Amino acid sequence: MKQMKYFIAAGLLSSMSVSFAAETAVSEDMTKLLKSRLGGAVQVADPIETPVEGIYLTKYGAKIGYLTGNGRYILIGDMIDLKTQENLTEVSRRSNYKKVIDTVAVNDLAVYPSFIDETKAVLNVFTDTSCPYCKKLHEEVPDLQKVGIEVRYFPFPRGGARGPGYQTLQQVWCGDDKAKTMNIAKEVESGSLPSSDCANASFVDKGYQVGNQLGVTGTPALFTADGQKIEGYVPSAKLIPMLLR
Q: In this structure, what DSSP letter does residue 220 have?
C-alpha cells in the first residue's frame, strides 16, 4: 500500500466545524466493506465523516487513515487545516490514545504521585526494566514529582513474553507496592523482588497489549493525560515544560 505523508485540506473548512466531536457514522455498507478489506486480526473502527466531502476517517489497529467514499483507496497521513494550521489528525489521534489509556485502572499501574498537594500533570510511561533509557528516565522521576507531575508506569516487555524484562516485570507487578518493587528492579532502591507466580503477573501481558494498541514499538514510550505521544527518552529538564505548559 502506498503511503501519503500529508493529506492537506485547504480552504474547505470555512463553513464547517473543525472539531471531530460531531463525527457522524457512515453507512453500514461502507463499514462492512472496509472491514472486509482491512479486517482479519486488525481491529477496524467504523468510518466517520471528515470536513472534506467524500473522505472518511477510520482507525485500524493503532493507525488512522482516510478512506474514499467508494471504499477503494485509503490515505495514510495527517490532515492539516491550512487556514487554522490545526492538525486535525493529531486531534483525533490523541483522542484515540486517551480512550485506550483510560481503559486501564490506575490501581493496576505502578504510580509515583506528585510530591506537592496539587497534581499538575500526569505522565503515562510504557517501560521495560531491561531498557537502559527507561532506567535513566526513572532516575529523574523525583524531579517530575517535585513539580507536581504524577508518573504512571505500564509494563511493556520488549519482545513480549520472550523479552529479557518479561519475568522481572511480572515480579514487579506481584509486589504489594508496585512503585517500590519497580525501584528495586531499576536499581534505585535495595531489596529483593517477589516471585513472579501471582495473579497480577498476567497484567504484564495486558500492558503489552495496550502498548501495541497505541503503536508502541520501543521503550520508554510516553503519553500525556490528553493522549499526546512522546517518543523515547526525554530529559526531565525538557519534559517538565512540555507537561506543564
A: S
> What confidence tens digit (pLDDT) does each residue in 104-127 have?
999 999 999 999 999 999 999 999
Under DSSP, the state recorded for 61 is: T
- Architecture of domain 106-244 in CATH? 3-Layer(aba) Sandwich (3.40)
d(CA 130, CA 231): 18
59 strand-pairing partners: 64
- Cell numbers linked to 152: 504512571
DSSP bridge pairs for 221: 126, 231
Separation between Cα atoms, residue 163 and residue 165, nearest integer Å? 6
pTM above 0.90, yes or no: no
The one-letter amino acid code at 210 reads V
For the beta sheet containing 55-60, the strands, ordered from the edge strand earlier in sequence to the opposite edge, are 48-49, 55-60, 63-68, 74-76
Distance set, CA 44 to CA 37, 41, 178 (Å): 10, 9, 34
First to last CA, the chain: 38
Q: Where are the domains of the chain?
A: 6-93, 106-244
| E strands present in 101-204 | 110-112, 121-127, 149-155
CA dihedral 114, 115, 120, 124 (to 10 degrees): -20
DSSP state of 216: -
Proportion of the chain in helix, strand, coil states, percent, rounded to 5: 35, 20, 45
Residues 6+ apart with CB under 8 A from 86: 18, 80
